[in-house]
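Ticket 4471: requesting a sanity check on a complex prediction with zinc ion. Repro inputs:
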Amino acid sequence: MTKAEIKERITEIRHWLHMHPETALEEYETSEYIAGIMEELGCQVTRGVGKTGVVATMTQGTGGGIIGLRADIDALPMTEETNLPYKSQKPGKFHGCGHDSHAASLIGAAMLLREDSSWNGTVVFIFQPGEEPGVGAKAMIEDGFFQRFPITEIYGQHNSVKLPFGLISTRPGKFMSSEDDFWITIKGRGGHASAPHLTKDPLVTAAEIVLQLQTVISRNLNPQDAGTISCCDIRTDGVLNAIPSTVTIIGDCRTYDSRVQDVIESRMRDIVRHVCEMNGCDWELRYDRVFIPVMNDEACVQVVAEAATKLYGADKVDINAPMGSGSEDFAWFQRQVPGAYFNIGNWAGQGSTPYPNHNSHYEFNDDAILFGSELFTEIVKIRLQ
Ligand SMILES: [Zn+2]
Ligand SMILES: [Zn+2]
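Returned structure tokens:
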């Protein structure tokens, strides 16, 4: 197949995926479709890794090197509002983050690598489910991914409508933030709104906790460290003229450093305990580390830069990108082996900035679909010689 034919084929594949979106850990049709294509390409395919993940391997020559290339495959639980001819056929499900393009680009890499005899070793193509809620990478790892597919490094990419078309953007070290989700439950004693002296008011207690939590960032973190604590919702018993018995505060915290996560979690626990004790309330804290920070390996970032420079020229490569505040569960793979995560610019560059990812009008620009395939292929050629 020529490159033009591969581009056409993977565009068709993306459109099929786009029309048939499935959300986290329910990507049955998606993974079966991908597995079938990878088998046609001559790969060894393992289904059901981490429930709905697919892993395909391609070996050439006798080299012992094994590297991983990863795409995510899940859609978002939202309704698409574009007028595209290949619009989602499922209300309430939409590839609004462009993971359909990631899967198609990774398939494109397999097509390119199959027709290239200049590499030597094993490539592991990872089609990961459940990225959006941050559960899929962990599910694959807990299902023995690294024991079954002993990769020694890993690469992953995301489309970005915020970046100019074709710009490859990444950075060594801290690249994307962690995300910790918390649920603080305060149990008091409810009662009549007119008789607060007979109650233990969990709502006033919650209000004190919300304000105290803001002192963790300002008073407990080193000013050089970044972090956020956002209380995003307060749920009460919801009766107009009754002091509630139970109040729950939910929210999330972001940082770029696991040490900062430790500080936030332990200070949150102290504040909740002390404020509740002071007000005579019981409490529970659930604190889930959903996403850990994406930490890019310096040497792997250099490989991405070398590949991108060779393909598109140095002016299309930026390895000093600012740290992003989004999160990515690719980081769980990077905790086991060195790796690099990078963004590929998808904005055609005319007019105003397009609709962002996670917007119901978001559209992936198909002209950029082959960049991911070419970059993955070039990375393999650099690392598996
Ligand atoms: Zn997303
Ligand atoms: Zn995404």
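Notes from triage: The longest strand covers residues 153-164. Leaving this open until the requester confirms.
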